[in-house]
Every structure is written in C-alpha cells, then in structure tokens.
Amino acid sequence: MKINSANINVILKACTKASKILIRDFGEIEKLQVSIKGPGDFVTNSDKRIEKIIIETLSQARPDYQILSEETGEINKNSSEYRWIIDPIDGTLNFMHGIPHFCISVALEHKNEIICGVIFDPIKDELFISEKGNGAYLNNKRMRVSSRKNLKDSVIFFGGPKANKKDWLVGMQDYQKLSSAVISPIRKMGSAALDLAYVASGRGEGLCQRNLNYWDIAAGILMVKESGGIVCDFKGKQNHAENKTLLASNSEINPELLNLLN
Description:
Radius of gyration: 18 Å
Strand order of the largest sheet: 4-3-5-6-7-8-9-10
Structural class: alpha+beta
Shape: globular
Oligomer: single chain
CATH class of the largest domain: Alpha Beta
Distance between the termini: 40 Å
CATH topology of the largest domain: Fructose-1,6-Bisphosphatase, Chain A, domain 1
C-alpha cells in the first residue's frame, strides 16, 4: 500500500481497537440494549462503546483536533483546522439483526476538505483506505470505479426512503425512476458508507440517496473520488451536505443518472 501517513495510522489504530469490541458484541446481539433516536433511527450500547474507544484513541494522538461524531456530536469545536468525522457503526439496524453488513467509518478534514478516510468492515475483514492525492485501496490493492458505460446494465445502490419522513413520496419516486432504468434490481444494503466503498471498488456503479448525515458519507466521498468516480448532489453540484442529496458513480453513467433524477 502506498498510503502510510501518520493520520491514517492513527485512524487504523482506533479502528483496530474498536473492531475487537464490535466483533465480540456482534456475537452476543441478543444481549444488546437498544434505544430509538427517531423514526427508523436506532442506537445500541455498542455504538456508544465503539465511539468512546475511537474518540479516546484519536484524542490521545491528536488532542487539539475537532471531532464530529454521530452519538456525541461536536468536541473541541473551532480549536483546530483539523476535524475527525466519526460514524462508530454505519449499518446499526443490520448489526442489531445479526446481518453481517456494517462498518466503522472515520474521516479527517483539513480546512473543511476531506483529506483521508477509513471504512472498516470487521466481519468481512475488509479495510478501505483513501488519502487525497494518493488514491484509494482495499486490503492493499488499488481501487478503481467500474468502467461500465450503460446505466441499464449497472448495479445501483439506494438508501431510502424511511417511513414517516416528510419526503417519503419523493424518495419512492426516485426509486421508481431508478428501478425502471436498470435491468438488475436496485440494491438497498443498509450502510451508506459501505455503498460508497463498493462504488469506489467497482462492485457497483452508483449510489443515490437522500437525507444522509455527514458522518455517513465523509470517508466514502473521498474514496469514490480517489478511485476515479464522481460525487455530487442530484443537481450535479457540490451541495450534497446542504441539500441532503448524494449521487456517487463512475463518470460514464453520471450524466444518465442526473438526467433521470431530474
């Protein structure tokens, strides 16, 4: 692997520590305590434990860096030009039900630009790493987005809509548009971070989703870009964080997807 920066090594140390607890808890899911954050949003004691380990490890190595994490929120706000973005378990519902498809996602920003990220799937032992300007890798092998040229032949990941959300109907319309344009059924896998990692590694051609939080996508955005893909909002702009729409794909099908969604 050509990526061996100090910040990546700090993230890897945190993920390695946290994954041991995550794997253990996954083997004892019947003992999990679960609370509901909102419609369709759950948090387990494992989320909190994993987050605590990651934050402690990152803070020991970089005490001045800001932190934005799913469960804890903001730490050291405005104390540094650097900020960690943490999702302790992306795919919590899968985790809760014993479905082995979830991950730890950690990214690092410098002056509001993502400069490196790690997505770690501990059950499959798949480590996705990217660094700005240095590419993206899966278990030491360079990743490239798919070269498939036609949308109809593509695998598209989709993340919604959730019940009781105000834009449920528009989300269903997105799904109908996408499903009518491709031969293969749309994939709804339950982890946006892994969806992005899979697009980056060429396992699928695109991801379309609304209402994603920044910690869901920060690490994956860089991976897709460093693998030669395109990340934008549904209008083709870079306002996905503000308007809560995300489109990630290879460059070949991006125009088709934008035309379809608009």
